[in-house]
Amino acid sequence: MSRSQLTLFADVLQEVEKFPGWMQENELRWIHEAAASLQPNQFWVELGVHTGRSALCTILSLPPWAVFVGVDIILGSHVGFSTFVDRATYLRPDIKLMLLKMSSKEACKLFQSESVHSVFIDANHTYESVMEDITLWKNRLVPSGILAGHDYIPDFPGVVRAVNTFATPVVHGYSIWEIKNPKNR
Predict the structure, then answer these.
(1) Which of 17, 56, 93, 94 is most buried, by CB atoms within 10 Å?
(2) Has this prediction a pTM greater than 0.85?
(3) Smallest Cα–Cα separation from 162: which of 137, 133, 120, 123?
């Protein structure tokens, strides 16, 4: 396997399927395409890394020299997490990988306004937590940035309610939500 950006989704999927998680193939495809749209030195922040399945998809799909920031209050506590980190750093030595074991609120303070190009929310699924993540991170996004997340389905009413409170999302695949132009809301 190449140690650089995997431009073919089939190559990304082959690596990602080795890791547990709930992301379906069509959702992983959206992440692959969104991550590939970034430019070198741009930031992708993922809130809620869990076992690393969606994070690995993102990392493998980012362009060279992009920055991946994973934020999780329980970072590293899941079985297989160290394998994810080893695989990501082996396959993508050209990506700056930052893994932060802290709250979303703490991590947000590390970034200036309009400094992040993508924020993917898949952490605590309560209404209050999702609203807080959206509110905190929307101002960290560049004007054309991506604000998206996972689990926009009835099984997670807190996610659905928070996203709908903020804006009408575009839904991709099974349960990925995206809010266009979040800074205008």
Answers:
(1) 56
(2) yes
(3) 133
